[in-house]
Design brief:
The complex is a heterodimer of chains A (361) and B (354). With 361 residues, chain A is mainly α. Chain A has two domains: 73 residues, no CATH class; 262 residues, Orthogonal Bundle (ABC transporter involved in vitamin B12 uptake, BtuC), CATH 1.10.3470. Chain A contains 14 helices and two strands; from the N terminus they run E-H-H-H-H-H-H-H-H-H-H-H-H-H-H-E. In chain A, strands 1-2 form a two-stranded antiparallel ribbon. Chain A is globular. Chain B has two domains: 126 residues, Rossmann fold (3-Layer(aba) Sandwich), CATH 3.40.50.2300; 178 residues, Response regulator (Rossmann fold), CATH 3.40.50. Chain B is built from eleven helices and 14 strands. In chain B, the strands form three sheets. In chain B, strands 2-1-3-4-5-11 form a six-stranded parallel β-sheet, with helices on both faces. Chain B has a six-stranded mixed β-sheet with strand order 7-6-8-9-10-12, sandwiched between helices. Chain B has a two-stranded antiparallel ribbon with strand order 13-14. In chain B, helix 3 runs parallel beside helix 4, helix 5 packs antiparallel against helix 10 and helix 7 packs parallel to helix 8. Chain B is globular. Classes of the chains: A mainly alpha (361), B alpha/beta (354). Chains A and B meet through helix 4, helix 7 and helix 13 of A and strand 2 and helix 3 of B. Chain A: It is a multi-pass membrane protein. Chain A: This is Nucleoside ABC transporter membrane protein. Chain A: Its main location: membrane. Chain A: GO terms for molecular function: transmembrane transporter activity.
């Protein structure tokens, strides 16, 4: 019979291997689903995972798009992962992303149409500040009044969405287009445009910022005392307190970093690929980044891979709809499978199955 | 062997022109094709287009495409894959359509309810929904017993605002005591939010629910609560057989077929089409039996008058909400004013969000 046995220590091998195995299982199960929908599973999987990168028709366009789609996910997820390691559960990165975008766009629109090399750096600072401030609300409420940061940060997303709508309809509305909500197109305002740094590569300042954030986060978590405190607080909160770690300070730092990075992501998006403040500007990056953080094992370099993988399924999923008439819902199920298999497989990081002979255990 | 080769070459030569005649048409939708409302309406037209041309067109869709970078990417990929015509079926794709159209001058863009036209390969098309709203308002004003009509609105854009105004004016004309309650969802398709909005409106005393959002949620809630509702963009009667009084049903197919025919004939040109009852682009879903026969006749007459051009839903004297005059006695609203409408008419008590 099969017996379940708890491992003495979590398996290092499975921790690393599980995400890869989850991808393989997703391909298999997804293939079965696509076959049941009457589509060629090989073609479908190829469209989703390979064509965005290797296709002659699309590759040169969708490779840069992959960076554009993944950069905000990675930037947000890196910040979230630091908090998650310390058991600080910031679920509201979407709201911090929105407020960062509004702060950044606000600076740009205040200067419009003046030229100036100082405008974009100011927008970057404003974006980070906006996300930081929005994250300070759950941080201070938690440290002062012991509220639950999961609820507060999540509910603040809806508040941020309403502020976004109010801005798109009112203060930041483009006065040149009668009757329609939405701000000016920042891509047409040179001083504020987060343009491609190298033509045709998709690399904009947000991609650069994501890379820098990944490296800094890695250095901090592995080399710096703060990183050690964060890990300690997450794994052994009591020991951390005895070791002189102030929990309130950690909450503020973790939420602050995550908020600032999410705010930056929003700012780079609104001034680049997104282009303008619109009511529906937020497209769920802040929530998808939570999946990216866990898929990447809360490790900055893992998050890069996870972000690229998720970006790939989005772009490939669109190709699958377009080229193979796959329903949009099937693509969403496919993306959901990825997380499902990962969580299911993570079971074997902590447990192992033992085959035993006979009934006697 | 030689014969075989010749045959192969011949069939290839014969096959090529057939392939070249296939017009590739892409559709991007803001919601799922299964919304039973707006997106379903466009997809219905796509299927009719496919049936009409058979193998001479190939249609592809991508659903649930957000405005902004996602839309731009999807349309670029469509253009790269050799798509000849792209239908972008929501107003918010405007900046994205224009960005992609500038890079692919040989691709024809058809933007539904669009408002930006910076390149000569972009056609805009829209329906005069306010004509249909006038009929809904007339029926609602007569059917309501609480004199309160609930309105679930999506985005405060001219098409939605003119719809509210038209419905209000025509309800008010037959029922001076009527009162509109409006809830904005800032979304086209969010069944949970639309259901919440419908429940709130019913709690506030509304016994007729109108919607300018795409899901069937409000019709279902109305059915459960025993009040009346109108569907949106498609006939939603199966989701509320008792509640569903009628719906403005979008019929884009004749227009889509004519545009693809124009591409095939080489006569396609950038246009800005605004079509109503007269063009058959909107029509009313069958009247519910609970609407009295007399009222059905009035509604039919109203449709006929609008279609014949004898009556315009915005005919003066009309004032803006703040009391300032808008249209003088007998004056008819100009299309430009309606296409940029950003105010409520007099009598609506709520404030327009902006």
């Amino acid at each position: 019979m099969i017996r379940l046995e708890k491992r003495k220590e979590p398996s290092k091998f499975w921790r690393i291997a599980n995400p890869f195995l989850a991808v393989v299982l997703t391909m298999l199960a997804g293939g079965v689903m696509f076959a049941m929908l009457g589509k060629d599973p090989i073609v479908a999987i190829r469209l989703i995972f390979f064509d965005p990168i290797f296709s002659e028709t699309f590759g040169s366009y969708s490779r840069p798009q992959l960076l554009i789609k993944s950069a905000p996910l990675i930037l947000i997820a890196v910040g979230l992962a630091i908090g998650f390691k310390a058991n600080v559960w910031n679920i509201g990165a979407e709201g911090q992303y929105i407020i960062g975008a509004l702060f950044g766009a606000g600076v740009a629109l205040a200067f419009f149409p003046a030229p100036g090399a100082h405008i974009f750096p100011l927008m970057v600072l404003a974006g980070a500040l906006g996300g930081f401030l929005w994250a300070m609300i759950p941080a201070i409420l938690k440290t002062r009044f012991n509220t639950n940061e999961i609820l507060v940060s999540l509910l603040l997303v809806y508040v941020a969405e309403r502020i976004l709508a109010a801005m798109a309809l009112g203060l930041m509305r483009n006065p040149d287009i009668a009757g329609f909500p939405g701000s000016r197109d920042l891509r047409r305002y040179e001083a504020a445009h987060n343009a491609e740094l190298f033509a045709g590569t998709g690399i904009h300042w947000g991609v650069v910022a994501a890379l820098i954030a990944v490296i800094f986060a890695y250095a901090m978590m592995t080399r710096h005392m703060l990183g050690f405190h964060i890990q300690l607080a997450g794994q052994a909160p009591r020991a951390a307190r005895f070791g002189g770690v102030a929990p309130a300070r950690l909450v503020v730092i973790c939420l602050g970093i995550a908020g600032a990075l999410a705010g930056l992501a929003g700012m780079f998006e609104v001034s680049g690929p997104g282009g303008q403040v619109r009511i529906e500007f937020a497209s769920g990056y802040g929530f998808t980044a939570i999946i990216v953080a866990f898929l990447g094992r809360l490790n900055p370099f893992g998050i890069v891979l996870a972000g690229l993988l998720l970006g790939l399924t989005y772009i490939g999923g669109e190709l699958g709809q377009m080229m193979l008439q796959l329903p949009g819902a099937a693509i969403q199920v496919f993306q959901g499978m990825l997380l499902f298999f990962l969580l299911a497989l993570d079971f074997q990081t902590n447990y192992r199955l033992r085959l035993t002979k006979g009934v006697r255990a | 062997m030689k014969k075989l080769l010749t045959a192969a070459v011949l069939s290839a030569a014969l096959a090529t022109p057939v392939l070249a005649d296939t017009t590739k048409v892409g559709f991007i939708y803001i919601g799922p094709v299964g919304d039973f409302g707006w997106t379903a309406g466009h997809d219905r037209a796509r299927q009719e287009l496919q049936d009409h041309f058979g193998d001479a067109v190939e249609t592809n869709i991508v659903e649930n495409v957000d405005y902004g970078a996602d839309a731009e990417r999807v349309m670029t990929q469509m253009a790269l894959s050799g798509t000849d015509v792209i239908f972008a079926a929501s107003f918010g794709y405007g900046p994205d359509v224009n960005a992609v159209a500038g890079r692919f001058p040989n691709v024809h863009f058809q933007h539904a309810t669009g408002y930006i036209q910076e390149h000569d390969n972009i056609s805009l098309y829209d329906a005069r929904f306010y004509e249909g709203r006038a009929v809904l308002g007339h029926i609602a004003g007569k059917m309501t017993e609480t004199n309160t009509i609930g309105y679930i609105a999506s985005y405060p854009i001219p098409a939605v605002i003119s719809g509210i105004n038209s419905a209000y004016l025509h309800a008010k004309a037959v029922n001076p005591d009527v009162n509109f309650r409006i809830i904005w969802t800032y979304s086209w398709f969010d069944p949970a939010l639309e259901a919440d909005a419908a429940e709130t409106l019913i709690e506030q005393g509304a016994d007729v629910i109108m919607q300018h959002t795409d899901s069937t949620a409000a019709v279902r809630v109305a059915e459960d609560a025993g009040v009346m509702a109108f569907g949106q963009a498609s006939d939603m009667v199966e989701f509320g057989p008792t509640a569903h009084l009628s719906a403005i049903v979008d019929r884009w197919a004749p227009y889509y077929i004519s545009r693809i025919q124009a591409v095939k004939d080489g006569t396609w040109e950038a246009q800005n089409s605004w079509m109503g009852f007269a063009d058959g682009v909107i029509e009313m879903a069958p009247w519910n039996d609970r609407i009295p026969a007399e009222l059905q006749q009035e509604a039919d007459a109203l449709i006929a008058a609008i279609a014949a051009g004898e009556y315009h839903p915005f005919t003066g004297p009309l004032n803006r909400q703040d009391g300032t005059p808008w249209l003088a006695d007998g004056e008819v609203a100009e299309d430009g004013d309606l296409a940029s409408m950003n105010f409520y008419v007099e009598g609506i008590t709520q404030e327009l969000p902006n």
